[in-house]
Amino acid sequence: MHARPEPGFAQGHGAYKPLCRSRPIPRFRCRVCRRTFSRQTFRFDYGDHKPACNAKVFFQLCSGTGLRQTARLVGMTKNNTARKFRKMGRHAQRLNRNLRADLPETATVQLDEIETYEERRTSRPLTLPILIERESRFMLGARAAPIRPSGKITPRRARAIAADEARFGRRPSRSRAAVHSVLRRGAQLCGKLSRVLLETDEKSTYPALAKRAFGAERLDHQCTPSTLGRGTWNPLFPINHTEAMARNLTGRLRRESWLVSKRRWFLNRQLALYCAYRNFVRPRFNRDRSTPAQLLGWLHRPLTANEVFSWRQDWGT
């Protein structure tokens, strides 16, 4: 009955006292299969040895701190912190999907890409498309993908690229696939909109990908030259500001940093954590009291870190 529970499917079956909590955990027995379970069965921290550290790890990782320094500040080992980070990242990916709803009719979405890298800046670049709702600054999607090295190729950089190709093979360029995946994720929230207003820069691949994701008949695609100054007068200032905040609060996105991700899927887990923090916990601006999710009408108040990592999210909405 755990997938589709009905009222009254279980009855009380005592309680137990865990070592990591001050209160007893109630137990239940299913009336259908007669198996027993507890309240803890349905929580994210099921099986955690230090559930009280989840919120601390979450705030440290969303404040530009690396795993090693987080482990020192929280009082855990590096390996335990890394395992907790991966589990929290998987949970945050599901939470970001489950707490979203349809965008309002007045919504405007903006898309842009930033460049970062995995393991080695000279030979293993990544593209990171980010899609937001303009007014609320809600991050609708972000996904890192590999791209081919570009720019000036010095002899030293050529040797690094050759060494990587000998180790991993020729590096693919999956920028189009990543942009389409992020746009398609946004299109799932625009299903009830009669017109979709998308704002991007003038990159040549965006128009075809946007029409493919949203449909050409209802898409209003507005382009802004990337040579325009990045002040508040720029129509793309909201997405540029979002990218700047992401680089500041996510140490893995800094241009030259020891916190760089060794593999891009770890960066995607970190992005999921940051999206959960940005969308549901932190106010849109310092002067605001409402989170992006509140401004879109999806939540009635900010979530605390303990609420973000409370109930399991692997059964969908």
Radius of gyration: 22 Å
- How much of the residues is beta strand, in percent? 15-25%
Q: Major sheet, described briefly?
A: 6 strands, mixed
Q: Specify the number of helices.
A: 10
Helix/strand/pairing category = alpha+beta
**Overall body shape:** globular
The helicity comes to 25-40%
Mean pLDDT: 92
Quantity of strands, as a count: 9
Cα end-to-end separation? 16 Å
* SSE pattern, N- to C-terminal: EEEHHHEEEEHHEHEHHHH
Oligomerization category of the chains in this entry: single chain
Poorly predicted spans: none
Can you give a write-up of this model?
There is one protein chain. α2 crosses α3 and α3 packs across α8. The radius of gyration is 22 Å and the shape is globular. 33% of the residues are buried. The mean pLDDT is 92. It has 317 residues and is an alpha+beta fold. It contains 10 helices and 9 strands. The longest helix has 21 residues. The strands form 2 sheets. Strands 4, 5, 6, 7, 8 and 9 form a 6-stranded mixed β-sheet that branches. A 3-stranded antiparallel β-sheet has the order 1-2-3, with no helix packed on it.
